[in-house]
Amino acid sequence: MTRTNCLIVMLFLFCFAPLYSSVFADTATTRRGSASLMSPLIPVNLDVNEPEVIEIANFAVSEHNKRSNPMLKLSQILSCTKLYLTIGASYSLQLLAHDGFETLNYSARVFHQTSIFNSSYQLRSFELVPPPLQ
After folding, report:
1. Which residues are CB-contacts of 106 (< 8 A; sequence separation ≥ 6)?
2. What does the angle CA 134 – CA 125 – CA 129 come to, to the nearest 5 degrees?
């Protein structure tokens, strides 16, 4: 193999090995959900009772409260899906939150950026889900 080819292979492994290793590490434990190990862009359904999901849901409600007037309190997490990305993960949550008068259904998207030096959450959206038409 020529020196140029070796450098290309090393660059490829350096860039993409962390992506696949994180997918293998999380999906190797079957309690996290069923996802194809070879396709990291398939959403994984997470258990709503996992500490990671509870932390992300609390972050979403807390961040929404900082940005808007209503002071919501998390009542229940209905569902959570995780989509693995190269530099982190995107979470889609369905949750119930109480505003002091009534409990309403909300949809939230949170991005979790991870790197060697830090880890941070970003609230991408937090929207009221309209009630079903009767």
Report:
1. 72, 94, 95, 96, 97, 126, 127, 128, 129
2. 10
CATH number among 3.40.50.720, 3.40.50.1820, 3.10.450.10, 3.40.190.290, domain 3-128: 3.10.450.10
Which amino acid would we find at residue 87? I
- Distances 72 to 16, 21, 78, 117, 125 between C-alpha atoms, Å: 40, 37, 16, 32, 15
- Residue range 63-95, pLDDT digits in tens: 999 998 779 999 999 999 999 988 889 999 999
The pair phi, psi for residue 33, each rounded to 5°, is: 130, 180
Q: What is the pLDDT of residues 25-61, one digit of tens each?
A: 444 333 444 444 444 578 999 999 999 999 999 999 9
